[in-house]
Amino acid sequence: MLSRIGYSIKKCWQHRLALRGFVRKPELQLSTIYQLPEVNLDGVKALILDFDGVLAAHGELTPKADVIPILDQLQGYKLYILSNKPMPERQEYFAKHLPAIKFVKATRKKPYPDGIQEILRIAELEPSQCMVIDDRLATGVVAAVDIGVRALWVSQPFINLSSNRLVESWFILLRFVERLLLA
What we know:
Layout lengths: L1 H13 L1 H9 L4 E2 L15 E4 L18 H6 L4 E5 L5 H10 L3 E4 L9 H10 L6 E5 L2 H11 L2 E5 L10 H18 L1
Parallel strand pairs: 1-6, 2-3, 2-5, 3-4, 5-6
Helix pairs in contact: 1-6
């Protein structure tokens, strides 16, 4: 865990100008995943989606019910889930209900780019043909930037304080610090 934090800090510092762009430029942001079908995805053949914050609140086992139609609208793309919490229940849900969406479990968690590189290999695509959608600048977005994959930052992730107060509060704090340091 400490090596991952150190790696994240190193990569955030290395890519600080690019990451600052995600905070400052609306064209690099989505408020929520609901906006994704409206985005110009020219040249993109694969979308790499985070789960927690992007498809549901932290710790939930399935995507929010009203996110499913968004995922259905994106079926023209190769779709992948790359989560730092690849719970078996989540993987089983996608295998059963949304089998076209592949759940990828990386050897090392984001911000290491291993999972994105694995998806590039599986999909047989170049970095310019993929896009990462993530709610954390210091994990998924920095991993994408590090290897030249386009990214969109979800600036208003799904949160459920009533069911997961401690975890959600922790991630609210992390996102606040990311924005503060990169503004």
